[in-house]
Design goal:
α11 (880-889) packs antiparallel against α12 and α28 (1178-1194) runs antiparallel to α29. The protein is an alpha+beta fold and 1455 residues long.
Length: 1455
């Protein structure tokens, strides 16, 4: 194959994309190819490639077992894992177990059949080489960066993740994680196992170890693992203990005269490599391309040693990605490293010196050329923004290259050595820059101030021509630099003054040859070696030859029909005169033409000669020609390179194929013949490689048959968008574009760009983060976006190709130009007869029928006829807009508008020219356009056009009808008076719509704008939360809606009070002076809540009389905060406030009301009580106090009610309202007296229970709490009494002496109240029995109920029966009762209730039977009650304790 080769740059940011086997064969992943390099000799040599992956190679590993070391495995971003035979360079097997890009792969050093791979989603797959089986595991849901198999245990694999975690997994246990190693803070770049099993202590000093003082091999089985991370540290881990035992921090080395700033987290890849046989030595990369050898047994600065310190320039200049080592048979131990500086280096591990350096290429090889002065000096122009100059003849270093990057900053697309000045190299770039390097100095290049607008394709040195040649005798250089670029311009640069303006040679050509027409864009030029003539290739395929210095045109060669890509003159070296005038030309078709111009050059004609036949045709390539070179050693021998991927050597005179080279992958772009060896040729192409090969050693003589390339081109033509999408996708992912798309230049096939063009390589060259052009300066380390400049020579603006071609206005006549050539020629004859004879041929009517296209070249009538036919065609095809434009062009504006209106094809442009036809036409057209826009739902645009014809109200109606209220209102306010009725109507409609959709705030703004403040406040209040109510109240107050403001403020205050936000509630009410009484109410509620809460949480004894009652505290607060007292007058007087408060809601109490709500209602009655006190009405005062207490009791909060009684009456005397203000109540009326006695009875009732519990606490005997129910009256009455727990919580037991009661308990033993309560109990029991009977009867009548009703009724029936039985055990069984007997009993009891006074029923007392039982129980254990009182209690029990539970509890006292 090839002799020497510069391979593509190894891929960046991969943990293991290179590996070397025991025989010294190195495999390196570069792009989607694996390059095989023999490193066993003193110098390296590229021996072959493994081609097949569709995406970047992300991992590569050799099998390190004897007899199988030629087998290797690779992984790729395409998700494939491939097994290869490196000897035959063939694919053995492909596994597609991964569904995602594979990040790492490793062949187990222990098991020769096990390969482990991991992908970006965290899936780990085991591949078995011998059977082809795979097994997948998912140890961690994290992104894998690297993995490595243990060299000691086949099932142990270490996996490094992006987040800094390392997992040790056991593949024999379905990927079970044995240890999770945590310590790194950033992504894991590399992992390496110690080559020696066991965990002998690496340190002699135990304090240097982390977490262990040294683990011996005998203590626990394991192995050390080294890891390198982006956090700038390396760690040594114990796999047995699962913890870090050592941390190594990278040294900050001085570089380029300055120290690395440790605070700056610069670009870093930390690779670690543990060489075989060196258990205490570890190799790692460092910040700027240095390599460090670590001695793990040492400490401090003695721990590390740098590579390559024996001489300057040995180290890499950029970060290192991969290292792999091998011990050769001659006992040399080599280490190979790959770096971002695009160099591969080989190191001797014994001396730590660099053995050799292999340059690599990071882009397409666009240009290569040997120096005509410096023998063997080869210059390369590469797509990685660098120029390489290679001394190919040196014997010491076969790859002696120098890189030039300064001032380039773009792909190098053209090169040309100065013909006589040694070391002077001109270059052109992708961004249109032209410059000159002096390669034997370190100076930056000279850059021409004249830039091309597009890519520079060709550079050539030639004699100066005017105006630059004027004054050449005065010391100016005789040679100029010519550059040809993608915009079709050739510039002449003065090499001695590049800062000056370059001249365009087109002006000289036009002036010299008196050319008036436009010159075809130039695509290539070539000066004849003697400088007498220059050949210029054009975009139209024409080659023109001009004579220097005036550039008089000698001839025009018209054989090519496509863009000229390359031109080359035969050399003058000892060649016969008949060969010196041979010109070879290659274009975008596959044929190479050679022209003999000797007669034209030696005998210049007066006028240019047109040559249509070539001297020789060289046929064989199957795709366009991109470059060529004449052999300097032979006569008429030419080498050409092509997009068909081959280089072809020709014997021109014989038109014979001599040799064909097929060593490249992809198309070729440049070629040159060795100046010293007649058998050696150099080629470069899209595969990022430069290859040297021998003509005599090639297997083939002709290019391959073109079917494969033709099929590929057809596929790319048919689906260019897909290729573009793939490239874009790859660009987004930051990886290289898929290789199969890289070769596609532009859509359009044969007119694609030339060899120097960049179109196809754009994406691959720039998209790939692994191969992006990176000169050593940090300023250009970032990945660059694809160039947008056009890369095609034949299409100066590539962007035009990307746009959709507009529809033709004259398709019929245009189609006539696509007929056969004979018909087109006949058209010319027909047109000439029409134009000159005046009488057209028979049957020929220009602009009609078969001669429709001639209407464009004849008179106006013919043109109108053509327009009519074209219009009919447009209408039939549905292109009514085109038909309207044709009418417009013919001057029938009204007809064009009418046609467009009928077909619904009016446009802004047609409407804009409608005024030319008059106001009526314009107005009518505008209205029609409005209807068309409405059908297209473009209502805003339609309204704007109505405004243009002064139809404002119609525009407003249009907007309103489509619910564009905002725009309609803006229009009305901008154009109509403020009092316009339609404005209020719009606001109201919009508000209704917003309110319906739940946008209350926006609706309120509309109501406010419409002057409906009441509605605005109401709509805001609909949200019914505190903020909305507060806002609505404020809005109503500002707007003067006093009643609404008060109502809303009250609602808001109640909600705040329910949440016990008393301050907020007072703030809301304070804005309304008329709501003073409600502020007083909230003040009372707050005071009650706070007082009750304090009394519940306090562990102190209940307050004594000197603390004052709640009433006194209320009056004090009122006087202090609100200025309300007995002396207040006006609206602050007690009478006025009381009158306002009567309107407040005060419902009847019901059970199970929440305590907060019950306190609010209770505080309302207390507020009324204090106000009646201020007004002097004692009767009403005691009734309101009774209501306040009853509310809490009837709502089910008996304990709170008892505490409230104690707070109201600290002296336990309801007649004493206030001792502080000496207020004693005097009642003369019956109802207040009844209320007072009822209230006193409840106070005594609470004191009775308090006495009972305190007595029980002291004696530690008596009835337990659970016995309260059995000693109570049971059933109905028991439910009305407070339970023991509530009373106990609300009463702090005091230490009392056991003895008599300290109050008169006779008020609790009222016989009239006992009779009333007994009658009420009987009525309740009878009602329950009647309900049970009715239910039983309905079931008997209606049949069996469904299951749902049974379930619902079952609990009711059970409870009813139980109650009935417990309530009347002495009567007949329930089934013996009749409806009549129950009704009779009901009537009797109701009659008794009616006979009782109303005050007894209105102001009830505690359950008398229950009180009797408690009194008798207390008297049994201590003399609490007097004998008469005990006797009265027993009498009442006998008379009214008829319930089953009451009789059971009283049995012990009555027997």
């Amino acid at each position: 194959m090839h002799e020497r080769s510069l391979p593509a740059s190894p891929n960046w940011y991969c943990s293991r994309s290179s590996d070397v086997n025991s025989s010294g064969l190195l495999g390196v992943g570069a792009k989607n190819i694996i390059f095989l390099i023999d490193v066993s000799a003193s110098s390296c040599r590229v021996t072959g490639e493994l081609v097949g992956h569709k995406d970047l190679v992300s991992g590569f590993s050799f099998c390190q077992h004897a007899g199988q070391s030629h087998v290797c495995v690779s992984s790729s971003g395409d998700g494939a894992v491939r097994f290869w035979d490196s000897d035959s360079r063939s694919l053995i097997r492909e596994h597609a177990a991964h569904q995602n890009p594979v990040a790492a792969v490793h062949w187990s050093p222990v098991d020769k059949n096990l390969v482990v791979s991991g992908d970006e989603k965290g899936i780990v797959v085991c591949h078995w080489y011998n059977t082809g089986d795979t097994a997948s595991f998912f140890p961690e849901p994290r992104t894998i960066f690297c993995l490595t198999c243990s060299p000691h245990t086949w099932s142990s694999v270490a996996v490094g993740y992006k987040d800094g975690m390392i997992a040790l997994i056991d593949v024999s246990k379905k990927g079970e994680v044995t240890h999770r190693l945590r310590g790194h803070e950033d992504e894991i770049h590399s992992l390496a196992w110690s080559p020696v099993a066991g965990e002998d202590a690496l340190y002699s000093r135990p304090e240097d170890m982390e977490g262990t003082s040294g683990v011996s091999a005998g203590d626990e089985k394991g192995c050390y693992l080294a890891s390198g991370s982006k956090d700038q540290t390396m760690r040594i881990w114990s796999s047995a203990k699962g913890k870090s035992v050592m941390t190594l921090k990278l040294p900050y080395l001085k570089k380029r005269g300055s120290a690395v700033d440790p605070g700056v987290k610069e670009r870093l890849w930390l690779h670690v490599h543990w060489p075989k046989g060196r258990p205490t030595q570890l190799v790692s990369s460092c910040f700027g391309g240095e390599m460090v050898m670590w001695d793990l047994t040492r400490t401090g600065k003695q721990r590390w040693t740098l590579f390559g310190t024996s001489s300057e320039g040995q180290n890499h200049s950029r970060i290192i990605f991969n290292m792999s080592s091998v011990r050769l048979q001659d006992d040399r131990e080599l280490l190979i490293s790959t770096s971002m500086d695009r160099e591969m280096k080989c190191w001797d591990l014994a001396s730590l010196d660099c053995c050799w350096t292999l340059p690599t290429l990071g882009g397409f090889v666009y240009a290569l050329t040997f120096s005509p002065v410096g023998s063997g000096c080869l210059a390369l122009g590469v797509g990685d923004s660098m120029i390489r100059v290679w001394n190919t003849l040196t014997t010491q270093n076969q790859y002696d290259t120098r890189c030039f990057w300064q001032g380039i900053k773009s792909k190098v697309t053209a090169l040309a050595w100065h013909p006589t000045k040694e070391g002077s190299l001109s270059f052109g770039t992708d961004d249109g820059k032209v410059g000159i390097f002096e390669v034997f100095s370190n100076r930056p290049p000279q850059i021409s101030s004249s830039y091309h607008r597009k890519t520079v394709y060709t550079l050539a040195w030639g004699p100066a021509v005017p105006p630059m040649s004027f004054g050449a005798a005065g010391g100016k250089p005789s040679l100029s630099l010519y550059s040809c670029a993608g915009e079709g311009v050739i510039l002449q640069h003065d090499p001695s003054k590049l800062s000056g303006e370059a001249s365009d040679i087109d002006k000289l050509i036009r002036d010299t040859n008196s050319i008036k027409h436009k010159l075809s864009p130039h695509t290539d030029l070539s000066w004849k070696p003697d400088g007498k003539v220059v050949a210029i290739g054009n975009e139209d395929g024409c080659v023109e030859v001009y004579e220097a210095p005036g550039l008089k045109q000698l001839c025009s060669i018209q054989q090519h029909h496509k863009i000229i890509n390359t031109l080359r003159w035969h050399h003058d070296h000892d060649s016969p005169p008949e060969l010196r005038c041979l010109l070879a030309s290659g274009s975008s078709n596959a044929t190479v033409y050679v022209h003999d111009l000797r007669s034209v050059i030696e005998n210049p004609p007066e006028s240019p000669v047109v040559l249509t036949e070539p001297y020789r045709r060289l046929c064989g390539h199957t795709s366009k020609i991109t470059g060529m070179a004449w052999s300097p050693h032979h006569e008429a021998r030419l080498v050409t390179v092509s997009y068909d991927g081959t280089a072809q050597v020709w014997d021109v005179l014989q038109e014979a194929a001599v040799s064909n080279y097929r060593g490249h992958v992809g198309y070729l772009l440049c070629v040159d013949w060795s100046p010293v060896d007649p058998d050696v040729i150099w080629t470069g192409g899209k595969d990022f490689t430069l290859q040297e090969w021998r003509v005599s050693k090639q297997e083939f003589t002709k290019p391959p048959k073109g079917k494969k390339m033709v099929d590929l081109r057809e596929k790319m033509k048919a689906n260019p968008k897909q290729q573009k999408k793939k490239n874009k996708k790859a660009a987004g992912a930051g990886g290289a574009a898929p290789p199969e798309t890289n070769g596609e230049p532009v859509a359009g096939g044969e007119k694609a760009a030339t060899g120097q063009e960049l179109s196809g390589e754009d994406e691959e060259d720039e998209v790939s983060s692994t191969n992006s052009p990176v000169p050593p300066s940090a300023a250009f380390e970032t990945q660059r976006k694809p160039s947008t400049a056009a890369k095609s020579k034949d299409k100066p603006d590539l962007n035009l190709l990307k746009k959709k071609k507009p529809r033709s206005m004259l398709p019929l006549s245009t189609s006539m130009d696509h007929r056969p050539k004979e018909d087109l020629l006949q058209d010319c004859v027909t047109l000439a007869s029409v134009r000159h004879s005046g009488a057209p041929p028979a049957g020929c009517v220009p602009g009609q029928g078969d001669h429709i296209h001639l209407g464009l070249f004849c008179d106006r009538q013919a043109l109108y006829r053509m327009f009519e036919a074209e219009e009919e065609g447009h209408v039939e095809a549905g292109h009514h807009d085109s038909a309207a434009y044709l009418r417009l062009w013919s001057g029938d504006l009204e007809g064009a508008l009418r046609l467009a209106t009928e077909k619904g094809e009016l446009s802004d442009h047609l409407l804009s020219i409608a005024p030319m036809a008059g106001f009526e036409v314009w107005s009518r057209t505008a209205e029609a356009f409005v209807k068309q826009l409405c059908l297209q739902e473009q209502y805003l645009k339609a309204a704007s056009h109505l405004l243009s014809v002064n139809k404002l109200y119609e525009a407003v109606d249009l907007l309103r009808s489509h619910k564009l209220y905002r725009e309609a209102i803006a229009l009305v306010k901008a154009r109509l008076p403020a009092d316009e009725p339609v404005l209020k109507e719009l606001y109201t409609c919009w508000a209704a719509t917003l309110e319906k959709d739940g946008h209350f705030s926006a609706a309120a703004k509309c109501y406010l704008a419409a002057g409906a403040s009441f509605d605005a406040a109401k709509v805001i209040a609909r949200k019914n939360d505190v903020a909305s109510l507060r806002t609505a109240a404020g809005l109503a107050r500002i707007s003067g809606e006093v009643a609404l403001a008060q109502s809303l403020a009250l609602r808001c205050a109640k909600d705040l009070a329910a949440a016990q936000d008393w301050t907020g509630a007072q703030e809301v009410l304070s804005s309304q002076e008329s709501l003073l009484v409600h502020r007083l109410h909230l003040c009372v509620a707050e005071l009650m809540t706070a007082t009750l809460a304090d009394s519940e949480t306090s562990a102190q004894p209940r307050p004594s009389s000197h603390h004052g009652s709640v009433q006194d505290q209320v009056r004090d607060a009122w006087e202090e905060q609100f200025g309300v007292s007995q002396e207040s007058a006006g609206h602050r007087s007690a009478g006025a406030l009381l009158q306002e408060l009567k309107s407040a809601e005060s419902p009847a109490p019901t059970a199970n009301i929440p305590l907060r709500q019950a306190l609010l209602y209770s505080s309302l009655h207390l507020t009324r009580a204090v106000l009646t006190w201020l007004s002097g009405d004692d009767g009403q005062l005691i009734k309101e106090l009774w209501q306040a207490v009853a509310w809490l009791r009837d709502a089910g909060h008996s304990g709170v009610s008892a505490e409230f009684c104690r707070l109201l009456f600290p002296d336990n005397d309801v007649s004493v309202c206030s001792r502080k203000r000496s207020k004693v109540l005097h009642h003369t009326e019956e109802e207040p007296e009844a209320a007072a006695r009822s209230l006193q009875a409840f106070v005594d009732y609470h004191r009775l229970y308090e006495h009972w519990w305190s007595d029980s606490t002291q004696t530690q005997s008596g009835l337990p709490p659970s016995a309260a129910g059995s000693s109570g009256p049971g059933g109905e009455a028991e439910g009305k009494a407070p339970n023991g727990d509530a009373s106990e919580r609300s009463v702090s037991p005091e230490s009392r002496s056991r003895g008599e009661l300290d109050f008169d308990a006779s008020a609790l033993l009222s016989e009239r109240h006992a009779a009333c309560q007994a009658a009420q109990r009987s009525v309740s029991e009878i009602q329950e029995r009647l309900a049970a009977m009715v239910l039983k009867h309905s079931r008997a009548q209606g049949g069996q109920l469904d299951s749902g009703e049974k379930e619902a009724d079952a609990p009711t029936q059970t409870s009813t029966t139980t109650t009935a039985e417990s309530g009347d055990a002495g009567q007949r069984p329930e089934d013996q009762e009749t409806l009549f007997s129950l009704s009779t009993k009901m009537s009797e009891h109701q009659k008794r209730l009616l006979e009782l006074p109303d005050t007894i029923k209105m102001y009830p007392r505690p359950d008398v039977v229950e009180c009797c039982l408690v009194l008798l129980h207390l008297s049994k254990s201590s003399p609490s009650a007097s004998e008469p009182l005990q006797q009265k209690a027993k009498d009442l029990l006998r008379k009214y304790g008829s319930g089953a539970s009451s009789r059971k509890a009283s049995r012990q006292f009555l027997t």
